[in-house]
Amino acid sequence: MNLQNMPEVKMGIVAVSRDCFPMTLSENRRKAVVAAYKGEIYECPTVVESEVDMQKALKELREAGCNALVVYLGNFGPETAETLLVKYFHGPCMVVAAAEEGDLVQGRGDAYCGMLNASYNLKLRNLKAYIPEYPVGTAAEVADMIEEFVPIARAIVALKNLKVISFGPRPQDFLACNAPIKRLYDLGIEIEENSELDLFEAFKKHEGDPRIEEVAKDMEKELGEGNMKPEILPKLAQYEITLLDWVEAHKGSRKYVTLTTKCWPAFQTQFGFVPCYVNSRLTGRGIPVSCEVDIWGTVSEYIGTVISQDAVTLLDINNTVPASIYDSEIKGKYDYTQKDTFMGFHCGNTTSGKLTSCTMKYQMIMARNLPEEVTQGTLEGDIIPGDVTFYRLQSTSDCKLRAYIAHGEVLPVATQSFGGIGIFAIPEMGRFYRHVLVEKNYPHHGAVAFGHYGKALYEVFKYIGVEVEEINYNQPKGVLYPTENPFA
C-alpha cells in the first residue's frame, strides 16, 4: 500500500547533565542509547548543562532537520535548561532518564531523582512532553522507548501541519456529527469549509479531462471481477481528479490534508453517482475522506493512519448481530457474548485492501428514495478479519475534547448483509456502548485502525490536551463505569 500525506520523523537526542555530575557520564550513556537504537536518530554533540548549551543544541537540531526530540537525562540533569529545551524545540519531545549501571560512587547519575524534578519543572512551565510509562532505563530500554515514541511524534507533527477541507454542511438530522472548530484551531489544525456548489462547479470544469481514462483504467484494475458498474467509472475518475486537484490548489501553507464531504441527499441527483468508492481510494492512499461532513471523524481517521502507517476506515456503529448468526457462527467458537458483538457498516468507503473481496454496486438505502442509476458507486464487501482498534476524537458541543479507544477484532464470520461491513467483537461492548458511547453523547461514526494501537493513541490524545478522565475505554468485567449501577 503506497501511503502518502504523512510526515517522516527525524528524531534527535540531546543528553543533559547537571554541572556537579561528570558530563562524560551523560555523554557516554547517550552514545550507548544511540548504538542500541535500530532506527535513524541524530546524536546532538552538545551536552546541555546551561541555557547557553541549550541554545547551541537547538541550533544543531534545527540544522540537522530534526522534528522530534528525546531529552535524555544521563545524570540528574539541569532543571531549567532541560525544560527550556522542551519549550523552545519546535516539535514533540520525550523526556527519559538513565538507569544506574553498577558503579554507585563516581558512576552514579541519580537520573531516577532528576526525572522527578524534570516533570515538576515541565508542569511549572505548562509544557507538554511525552513521558513513557516507566521512563528510566538502560540503553536498550531507552532505545525501545524511542521506538514507541516515533508513531506518537509522527501524529503530533502531522496534526500541527494538517488542513481539513470540507464540502457542505451536515445532512439534515445528522446533528450528532457536530464539529465545533475552536478545538481544531487549538490543536494547530486549519480548516477550509466550502459549499457543495463549489465542489460541483469544480467537478463540471473537469469534464473531458485527459487524465480520466487513465484513472478509470486504474479503477478497473483494482476492482477486477468486482467491476459490476463499468459505465460509472469515468464519472468516478473525474470526481477523484477533482478532489486531488482541489487538495493541491488549496492546501496552502499546510503539508497534509484530509477531506470530508456531504454525500447525500442532493449529491446523487446532481453528480449522478455516490462518492463512496472514490473516498475509499483516497483513504487507501493516506488521505482520509469521511462521509456526511464528519470533520472530527476525518481527523480521527488521519491520526490512526499516521500512527499505524496503514489505511483506516470510518464506520457506523450500526446494528446488532442477530441471534441466528451469533448462535450458529460465534457462540462456543469465540469467547464473546452476543452483547460483545455488533456490525460496523458504511455504504462503501472502506478501501479494497481491507475487504475480503469487493464489488462495485449501488447504494441500497439511498435507492429506496432515488432512482437506482444515480446511486452507483459503492464498494461493497465484508471487512477483513483480524485485530482492530475502534476509536474517536471528538469536540463536544461546548468545546471539550473527548476520546474513546477500544481494542477488539473483526470476526471471520460472513455478515450476510450489504455495504462495507464486518462483525466486530469488543470485550464488554454492551457496557461500553451504554456507559461511554451513549452516556458521553458520541456520534454514530467510529474510526477503525487495523491492528491494536490503543497505547499510542492514548498517548497522542493525552499529548494534544484531552484530559485523562475524558479518554474512555472498554472497562473490563468487574470495573464499573462512574454511571454504572452497581446493583444492576
What features would you describe in this structure?
With 488 residues, this protein is α/β, with parallel strands linked by helices. Helices cover 36% and strands 21% of the residues. The chain is built from 15 helices and 18 strands. The strands form 3 sheets. It has a 6-stranded antiparallel β-barrel, surrounded by 4 helices. Strands 2-1-3-4-5 form a 5-stranded parallel β-sheet, with helices on both faces. Helix 3 links the parallel strand 3 and strand 4. Helix 1 packs across helix 5, helix 5 packs antiparallel against helix 12 and helix 8 packs across helix 9. The longest helix is centred in the N-terminal third of the chain and has 22 residues. It is globular. It starts with 10 loop residues before the first strand and ends in a 15-residue tail after the last strand.
Question: How do the strands of the widest beta sheet line up side by side?
Answer: 10-11-16-15-14-17
β-sheet strand percentage: 15-25%
Q: Tally the helices.
A: 15
Mean pLDDT: 95
- Alpha-carbon distance between the termini? 47 Å
Can you tell me the residue ranges where pLDDT is under 50 for at least 5 consecutive residues? none
Q: Tell me the radius of gyration.
A: 25 Å
In percent, how helical is the residue content?
Answer: 25-40%
Structural class: alpha/beta
How would you describe the shape?
globular
**Total E-strand runs:** 18
Sheet bearing the most strands, described? 6 strands, antiparallel, barrel
